[in-house]
C-alpha cells in the first residue's frame, strides 16, 4: 500500500526485506512507528519532520500502512508483536532482534544523506529502540517517545530499558562523548512508567533530556488520563500546548545534532 507524498522503497539486510517510505531531503531521520502501524497520524508526524528539512525513512514493521487507528486494530497488532520472534516485549536486558535490521537502515540513511549522522525516533513499542540504535556511531540524535518496552509486568520491568548491559555501557560512553538522548512521556501513562525515566536519569545523567507532560486529573490543558502518544494520536497542534512544544523540541534537537556546522 502506498502513502501519499512518500516514496516506497525496499531495504534488505541479511535476508530480511521490508518496505521503507521516504520523504524530504536533508539529514536522515529514521522514524519507527508505534502500534498498530503507520497510521495517518504517524504519517503526519513524519511529514512534519520532512517539512522541517530532513529526509525521513519510515520503515513498515507491522500493520497496514495508512490504516486508521482503532482499538481492534491496536489489539490485533499487539497480539502479533507479542508472538513475533522480531520483538521481545518482556526482555529487560536485551533488545528486540529487529533492532539489528534497523541499525543497518540507519547506516544506509547516513550513507545516502551524509552529514554528522542520522536521527532515530521510536515510539511506544519501538520507543526504546533508539537506545539500541545509538550503539552504532551513525546515530547522532536518538529520541525515545513514550518507550513502552519491556511491558511493565513487574517493578523491575517498569524500571528496565530493553537493553543489554553491554549495550547500555556503549550508550553511556556515547553520551559521555557528547551524544545526548531525548525522551518524552505523559506523566500518567501506564505503558511508559516514570520508573523507566528514573533509570534513564540515573544511568545517563545530564545527557538525558526528559519531557514529561502533565496528564494528571485536572491538568491545565485537559489532557486525558490515559494519554500515550506524544507526537501522534495525542498531539494537539495548538500554540502553547505542551505536546506542540514537545514536537518543536524534537525538530530542534534534530537540527542541533544533524546539521553540519
Give a brief description.
The chain is built from eight helices and eight strands.
Please characterize this protein's 3D structure.
The protein is of the alpha/beta class and 261 residues long. It has one domain: Alpha/Beta hydrolase fold, catalytic domain (Rossmann fold), CATH 3.40.50. It is 35% helix and 19% strand. It has 8 helices and 8 strands, in the order βββαβααβαβααβαβα. The protein has an 8-stranded mixed sheet, sandwiched between helices. The longest helix is centred in the C-terminal third of the chain and has 17 residues, at 242-258. The radius of gyration is 17 Å and the shape is globular. The N and C termini lie far apart (39 Å).
Topology of helices and strands:
Elements: E1 7-13, E2 16-23, E3 28-32, H1 40-51, E4 55-59, H2 71-83, H3 98-113, E5 118-123, H4 129-133, E6 139-145, H5 155-159, H6 165-176, E7 181-186, H7 194-204, E8 208-213, H8 242-258
Parallel strand pairs: 3-4, 3-5, 5-6, 6-7, 7-8
Antiparallel strand pairs: 1-2, 2-4
Brief descriptors of the model:
261 residues; alpha/beta; Rossmann fold; 19% strand
CATH T-level topology: Rossmann fold
- The number of distinct β-strands equals 8
Q: Give the CA-based shape.
A: globular
CATH architecture: 3-Layer(aba) Sandwich
The overall number of domains is 1
The CA-CA distance between the termini, in Å, is: 39 Å
Classified by CATH, the class is Alpha Beta
Helix content: 25-40%
| Widest sheet: strand ordering | 1-2-4-3-5-6-7-8
Q: Would you identify the CATH H-level superfamily?
A: Alpha/Beta hydrolase fold, catalytic domain
Q: Could you tell me the strand content as a percent range?
A: 15-25%
Order of SSEs? EEEHEHHEHEHHEHEH
Characterize the biggest β-sheet: 8 strands, mixed
Class inferred from helices and paired strands = alpha/beta
Amino acid at each position: 500500500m502506498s502513502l501519499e507524498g512518500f516514496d516506497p522503497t525496499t531495504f534488505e539486510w541479511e535476508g530480511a526485506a521490508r518496505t521503507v517510505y521516504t520523504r524530504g531531503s536533508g539529514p536522515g531521520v529514521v522514524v519507527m512507528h508505534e502500534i498498530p502501524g503507520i497510521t495517518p497520524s504517524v504519517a503526519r508526524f513524519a511529514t512534519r519532520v520532512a517539512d522541517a528539512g530532513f529526509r525521513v525513512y519510515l520503515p513498515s514493521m507491522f500493520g497496514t500502512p495508512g490504516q486508521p487507528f482503532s482499538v481492534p486494530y491496536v489489539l490485533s497488532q499487539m497480539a502479533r508483536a507479542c508472538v513475533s520472534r522480531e520483538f521481545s516485549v518482556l526482555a529487560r536486558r536485551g533488545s528486540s532482534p529487529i533492532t539489528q535490521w534497523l541499525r543497518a537502515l540507519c547506516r544506509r540513511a547516513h550513507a545516502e544523506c551524509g552529514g554528522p549522522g542520522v536521527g532515530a525516533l521510536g515510539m511506544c513499542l519501538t520507543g526504546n529502540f533508539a537506545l539500541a540504535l545509538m550503539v552504532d556511531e551513525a546515530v547522532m540524535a536518538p529520541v525515545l517517545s513514550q518507550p513502552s518496552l519491556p511491558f511493565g509486568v513487574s517493578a523491575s520491568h517498569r524500571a528496565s530499558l530493553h537493553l543489554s548491559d553491554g549495550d547500555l555501557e556503549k550508550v553511556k560512553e556515547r553520551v559521555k562523548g557528547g551524544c545526548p538522548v531525548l525522551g518524552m512521556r505523559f506523566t500518567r501513562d501506564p505503558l511508559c512508567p516514570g520508573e523507566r525515566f528514573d533509570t534513564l536519569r540515573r544511568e545517563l545523567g545530564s545527557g538525558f533530556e526528559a519531557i514529561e507532560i502533565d496528564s494528571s486529573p485536572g491538568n491545565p490543558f485537559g489532557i486525558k488520563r490515559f494519554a500515550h502518544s506524544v507526537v501522534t494520536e495525542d498531539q494537539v497542534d495548538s500554540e502553547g500546548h505542551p505536546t506542540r512544544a514537545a514536537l518543536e523540541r524534537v525538530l530542534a534537537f534534530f537540527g542541533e545534532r544533524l546539521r553540519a556546522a
